Structures are given as C-alpha cells and as structure tokens.
Amino acid sequence: MAKGYWVAFADVNDPEGYKAYIAENAKAFGKYGARFLVRGGEAEAPEGKLRSRAVVIEFPTYEAAVECYHSPEYAKAMALRQGKSVMDLAIVRGYDGPQPGGG
C-alpha cells in the first residue's frame, strides 16, 4: 500500500506565534503516524518559486494523510496558524511503480 505525503511550502510571518501551531500539530501528527522527511532547511529553486520553508511529511497511508488534515486535532492546530503564516499544501499518494534503472 502506498504511503501518503503532505508537501507544503510556507512563509511564516510571525515565528513566535507559529510555535503554538507547531506544538498543537504534533498531537494530530502523532495520532496519524506522521514522520517529517523535510522540515525547513536549505533549499533552492532551479525552477519556479519557493516559499521560505519546505516541509514533507510522510504518513503510513494516503488515507491517513487525508484523515489527519480533516481531523479535529489538526483543525485546532490550523486555527492557531491563522495570521501567522501563508501555506501551499498538497496531499499526495506515494508511488509504488517501476523505477528508472529497473529498481
């Protein structure tokens, strides 16, 4: 079964206030088995435009990724994020098909 991913790009305009969102989203992420693969850090944009933070979160399944976003736990965290950041978020299903080189 393919994993699910949140792929997010965010600009945080209130870093101190954003800390409450981070603390609260941990509850939803823990409940749905989330694991950070990318959480800020160095990035470049050879094409297009990035926001200041890139985040990739892995979930055990695509369904868990969708359920987490729509959960009451994440709704509470999202409310704390309002006015503190601007985010573009995609929830995507992982790929289990053939890979280049036959792998």
Largest sheet: 4 strands, antiparallel
SSE order? EHEEHHE
Q: So, CATH architecture?
A: 2-Layer Sandwich
**The number of domains:** 1
CATH C-level = Alpha Beta
State the total count of DSSP E strands.
Answer: 4
Unreliably modeled segments: none
Adjacency order of strands in the biggest sheet: 2-3-1-4
Helix content, binned percent: 25-40%
Q: What's the rounded overall pLDDT mean?
A: 95
Derived structural class: alpha+beta
Number of helices: 3
Coarse morphology: flat
Q: Beta-strand level of the residues, as a percent range?
A: 25-35%
Gyration radius (Cα, Å) is 15 Å
CATH topology type: Alpha-Beta Plaits
Alpha-carbon distance between the two ends: 17 Å
What can you see in these coordinates?
With 103 residues, the chain is of the alpha+beta class. The protein has one domain: 2-Layer Sandwich (Alpha-Beta Plaits), CATH 3.30.70.100. It contains three helices and four strands; from the N terminus they run E-H-E-E-H-H-E. The protein has a four-stranded antiparallel β-sheet with strand order 2-3-1-4. Helix 1 packs antiparallel against helix 3. The chain is flat and about 45 Å long. The two termini are 17 Å apart. 13% of the residues are buried. The mean pLDDT is 95.
